[in-house]
Backbone:
């Protein structure tokens, strides 16, 4: 008996451990949705195709596997295209599957066709690879190549479409092959290079780990923990890799946003970079902080993509391979001669703990009486359960979070590289779906960001996700208010386009969409409100009015914490 094309697509994805589809069904996909549901898949339908892509991204980051996002022909694919670009810049392996009209319609010379654009050519520069299943018997080779490409080198999205007359065709095919039969699965590094790296580490005075976003996305935290303990070293977190690894939370410090991190960079003589592009947010490993102290430091780079070696800075020992394999290789090489703990490690731990405690105790009074953004971060994150997933969104609120964060979450999802607002709710939903709704999820977001896809609160309620959303409300695009003041000076423009209605109430909107809603206007009450919301087990939105002047850095735009350092990311400080 033959297998329909849509069934074969599901077979091939299941062989990779994929069991969730994000998207809005249409005639091209209703058969696939029914078949997926019968197989026990999660079928997650948002209220905008762009949000579907963000959900798929959040899912992929929590599973270490590609995610599937579908979009209807024409407008659906067009609306999802923004998330393709986000997935590309964020290095997230998402398979975008688009429908298309029958080729007889597409190839005619006609005007006025319904729900139609030439899709593949439009999106090919937004993905790593794109293809069309023109004939049913191409299904295996195209889907497998998509799975191969999205997980090889630097991970990223792929786009596949099929015309509507293909989906119902039947195939006579054998059972789906295991991934190891058609792609490299977690390849290791060259043994001589591993030995060379181990020798550098053994002879170092102050080796450090620079840990990026891919460590969380590959679920390799415990492997990196073992390496950190064998090296006796501190862990520097990139701004994209700020999920804490369980068991080594205290020895993990943010690059750029803590004095301890500055000291570690200056003293480091061997840097082992894992799961990071060594990009602009870490000054390419050669500018700003790296230009001080031990500037002759050696670099060991664990990287899957050979083309990345040496692009941003010279690399002394490239360990080309999947970090899930390479890190254990390095651990094995060091096990016979583990290093003693660095003599400054306990001092660094103590000083950074004192830094966080002092931040939480500062005077948070504001002239307006509204909540200080720093207090918003402190109280919300102090109340976050230890096992919670933390999703972040916003402009100024995210900048404040780098400084004031009081928790050490093991999973953090936010849009680091692309700098795209409005991703937070989709990321949080996708991450929670991947987790099976078991762990609590805290989304800290700003009002402007939250409004992008607020309709997906209905998805949170539909799946009864254990999510608490704390919204900082300044009734403005706060970061852009600061840009006006920095550019023209305080009071010299009306700051057009960045202020909006003060009558929006997110707690009431939440109730209208089936969630709980809470209004908290005193910072000291926020922690208790977050704790109570998690205890209730009900999806909850907490509306917190924050002081707009504090949020955008004061009338001279000089007081946002670490804002001057944040600006050094852009074009090496020149923006």
Residues:
């Amino acid at each position: 008996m033959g297998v329909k094309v849509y069934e074969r697509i599901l077979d091939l994805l299941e062989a990779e451990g994929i069991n969730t589809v994000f998207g809005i069904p249409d005639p091209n996909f209703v058969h696939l949705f029914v078949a997926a549901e019968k197989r026990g898949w999660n079928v997650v339908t948002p209220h905008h195709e762009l949000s579907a892509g963000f959900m798929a991204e959040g899912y992929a980051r929590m599973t270490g596997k590609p995610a599937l996002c579908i979009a209807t022909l024409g407008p659906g694919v067009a609306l999802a295209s923004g998330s393709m670009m986000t997935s590309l810049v964020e290095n997230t392996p998402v398979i975008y599957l688009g429908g298309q009209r029958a080729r007889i319609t597409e190839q005619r010379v006609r005007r006025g066709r319904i729900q139609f654009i030439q899709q593949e050519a439009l999106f090919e520069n937004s993905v790593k690879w794109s293809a069309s299943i023109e004939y049913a018997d191409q299904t295996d080779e195209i889907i497998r190549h998509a799975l191969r490409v999205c997980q090889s080198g630097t991970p990223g999205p792929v786009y596949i479409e099929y015309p509507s007359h293909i989906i119902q065709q039947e195939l006579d095919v054998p059972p789906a092959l295991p991934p190891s039969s058609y792609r490299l699965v977690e390849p290791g590094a060259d043994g001589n290079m591993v030995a060379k790296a181990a020798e550098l580490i053994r002879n170092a005075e102050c080796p450090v780990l620079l840990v990026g976003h891919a460590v969380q996305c590959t679920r390799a935290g415990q492997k990196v923990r073992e390496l950190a303990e064998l090296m006796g070293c501190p862990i520097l977190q990139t701004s994209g890799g700020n999920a804490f690894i369980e068991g080594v939370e205290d020895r993990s410090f943010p690059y750029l946003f803590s004095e301890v991190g500055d000291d570690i960079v200056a003293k480091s003589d061997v840097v082992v970079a894992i799961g990071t592009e060594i990009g602009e947010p870490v000054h390419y490993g050669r500018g700003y902080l790296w230009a001080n102290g031990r500037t002759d430091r050696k670099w060991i780079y664990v990287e899957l993509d050979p083309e990345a070696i040496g692009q941003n800075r010279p690399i002394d020992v490239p360990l080309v391979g999947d970090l899930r394999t390479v890190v254990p290789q390095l651990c094995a090489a060091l096990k016979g001669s583990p290093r003693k703990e660095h003599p400054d490690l306990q001092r660094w731990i103590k000083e950074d703990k004192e830094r966080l405690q002092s931040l939480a105790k500062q005077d948070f009074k504001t002239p307006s009486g509204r909540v200080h953004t720093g207090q918003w971060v402190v109280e919300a994150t102090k109340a976050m359960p230890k096992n919670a997933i933390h999703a972040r969104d916003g402009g100024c609120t995210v900048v404040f979070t780098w400084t004031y964060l009081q928790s050490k979450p093991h999973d953090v999802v936010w849009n680091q590289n692309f700098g795209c607002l409005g991703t937070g709710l989709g990321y949080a939903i996708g991450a929670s779906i991947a987790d099976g709704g078991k762990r609590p999820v805290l989304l800290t977001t700003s009002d402007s960001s939250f409004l992008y896809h607020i309709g997906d609160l209905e998805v949170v309620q539909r799946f009864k996700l254990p999510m608490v959303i704390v919204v900082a409300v300044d009734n403005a695009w706060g970061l852009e208010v600061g840009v006006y003041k920095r550019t023209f000076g305080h009071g010299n423009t009306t700051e057009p386009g960045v202020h909006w209605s003060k009558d929006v109430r997110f707690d009431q909107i939440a109730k209208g969409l089936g969630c709980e809603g809470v209004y908290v206007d005193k910072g000291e009450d926020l922690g208790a409100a977050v704790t109570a919301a998690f205890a209730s087990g009900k999806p909850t939105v907490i509306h917190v009015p924050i002081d707009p002047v504090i949020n955008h850095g004061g009338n001279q735009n000089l007081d946002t914490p670490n804002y001057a350092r944040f600006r050094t990311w852009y074009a090496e400080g020149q923006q």
Remarks:
- The chain has three domains: 3-174, 191-347, 362-570.
- The domain at 191-347 is CATH 3.40.50.1220 (Rossmann fold).
- Residues 76 and 137 are 26 Å apart (CA to CA).
- The first strand starts at residue 3 and ends at 4.
